Amino acid sequence: MKLKSYFESAKGIGVLSTSDDEGHVNAAIYSRPHFTESGKIAFIMNERLSHANLQSNPNAVFLFKEEGAYRGVRLYLKKSGEETDSELLKQLKRRKKYPNADPQEHRYLVFFKLEKLLPLIGDNKEDYPVT
Q: Which of 96, 95, 101 is nearest to 32 (CA)?
């Protein structure tokens, strides 16, 4: 199964981990990634610590655990660009309303290149839910 198809059908919980240029780490719950036609992976981000960390350190890891099982993937990512309040961001939004969201707050569509893909546990290729 391809990565985009996997995330379209898989249900579970995702955590995006980032760190600043001094190595101070952060982990935050994030929804499934978006996939662009050009093959990039994208996340919609608010003006919070994860986004701030990516300004000084472009590396991140997205860990996804499937519901009801110890299966999933770890995506090792490198930021490749971003857009602020863009039309593409508005098209990709899965939720139309965000609880407790400040309507004046900027949202970012942050693009990543996939550097490495590993299963949730271990590094055995037989454990991969995706190819």
A: 95
